[in-house]
Write a structure and sequence with these properties.
Blueprint: E1 14-18, H1 25-32, E2 38-42, H2 46-54, H3 56-69, E3 73-78, H4 86-97, E4 101-107, H5 111-115, E5 125-129, H6 135-138, H7 144-150, H8 161-184, H9 189-201, H10 209-216, H11 220-232, E6 236-239, E7 255-258, H12 261-268, H13 280-300, E8 307-311, E9 317-324, E10 327-334, H14 345-353, E11 358-363, E12 369-371, E13 374-378, H15 379-387
Parallel strand pairs: 1-4, 1-5, 2-3, 3-4, 10-11, 11-13
Antiparallel strand pairs: 6-7, 8-9, 9-10, 12-13
Helix pairs in contact: 2-3, 3-4, 7-12, 8-12, 9-12, 10-11, 13-15
Length: 388
């Protein structure tokens, strides 16, 4: 078990804890609530789900009875999205018990809560997201080659190659292709399954909705809806284009990243071989790794720094544009041990419209150096600077 960077205010504030399956939500709650009395409800249990579905008031009466004997305890409701009406009972309890209990509602999807206009408790519970393990959490057990191939979901860390491949294939087939399909209420199952494969193959790349539509046999509008399903179920997130340019015509489609490289590789059929350094496939995975780690770091540190990409109609591009409190950072990501000045032309093009931007090349190098006014940083140094 690894110490997690996410800190929850148990005992002080109720919260929602969202995250895809197998990211470690249950383990985290067990670790941080070990010395507190807990009342656990899992809505994955069909009998419990049906009982509270028929009579939500039963949940309220049971919690009230428990709190009388365990003031200051924690009530954990697992997979809250399976029974949104239970949130009305939780709001009543939060208001009536006034600080005598803390609720933690976990879920692998916020889609049903948002789409059914569920009671999100009006600020009474703060939202948090748990991701796969980060480089800081893994510490000495972090291995770049393994993460590029198998990702960093807790069950695959330190396990044999055969186990990792079987686990990730099962995860992709049972969780993504069944539960997301159920969550999305998608009628065209073959089209959505094909879309998942394409989305994984294109993760970190610019999406052409028309091409996806032709490949799957559905309308471009449907492809957009499918991507929204992935966002709502926390399987992917969008990086929008940075459009603050007065002179250049810019690309305006988002780039989507799947939440874990291992799951992405399983869906795209890329688990068989270890990515080879120096190849385009390795470079693309390394770029996604940096973006995923950056997303997790910004979220855990509660840094409200929007992340974008930048690309012009003439092909100039920057992998990440970050709006920090201290100004704009333009970030190019390179997986090679050698950085040629010609590889940094996108940063120089960006500087023409944004002369005050900090230009950074994040690379798999040992020591920092400068190429003109462009900082070239080892990727670990880069994350240290972001974290402050």
């Amino acid at each position: 078990m690894y110490p997690r960077e996410l800190s929850l205010p148990l005992g002080e504030q109720s919260c929602f804890l969202f995250g895809p399956r197998q990211t470690g939500k249950t383990t985290l709650l067990s670790a941080i609530s070990a010395h507190r009395p807990r009342f656990d409800v899992t809505l994955l249990d069909t009998e419990t789900l049906l009982a509270y579905g028929r009579e939500p008031g039963r949940f309220r009466r049971e919690v009230e009875h428990w709190v009388e004997r365990h003031p200051g305890g924690i009530v954990v409701v697992d997979e809250i999205q399976k029974l949104p009406p239970l949130l009305d009972e939780i709001q009543f309890l939060l208001d009536s018990l006034r600080g005598r209990v803390t609720f933690v509602m976990t879920g692998s999807s916020a889609r049903k809560l948002r789409r059914t206009s569920a009671n999100l408790l009006g600020g009474r519970a703060w939202p948090y997201t748990l991701f796969p393990l980060t480089i800081r959490e893994l510490g000495r057990d972090f291995d770049l080659g393994s993460v590029l191939r198998f990702g960093s979901l807790p069950p695959v860390i330190g396990r044999p190659e055969g186990f990792c491949r079987r686990f990730l294939k099962a995860y992709a087939q049972t969780y993504l292709k069944e539960e997301i399909l159920q969550e999305a209420l998608v009628r065209n199952v073959p089209a959505f399954s094909r879309f998942l494969e394409l989305a994984a193959d294109q993760s970190g790349g610019l999406v052409n909705y028309s091409t996806f539509a032709a490949e799957t046999g559905v309308a471009s509008k449907t492809i957009r809806e499918y991507y929204q399903v992935l966002e709502d179920t926390l399987v992917a997130f969008a990086v929008p284009p940075y459009t603050r340019s007065a002179r250049k015509r810019l690309t305006r489609h988002p780039i989507y990243h799947l939440f874990d490289l291992g799951v992405c590789n399983a869906l795209a059929g890329r688990l068989a071989a270890q990515p080879t350094r120096g190849t385009s496939a390795y470079g693309r995975l390394f770029e996604q790794f940096i973006v995923l780690e950056l997303k997790r770091l910004l979220t855990y540190r509660e840094l409200d720094w929007p992340m974008y990409y930048w690309r012009t109609a003439h092909g100039a591009e920057v992998d990440v544009v970050l709006e920090t409190d201290g100004g704009v950072w333009a970030i190019e990501i390179k997986s090679g041990a050698t950085i040629r000045p010609t590889e940094l032309s996108g940063l120089r093009s960006f500087r023409e419209d944004h002369p005050d931007a900090r230009l950074v090349c994040v690379a798999d190098i040992d020591r920092p150096f400068n190429v003109g006014d462009i900082e070239c940083l080892p990727w670990r140094h880069f994350f240290d600077q972001v974290a402050g």
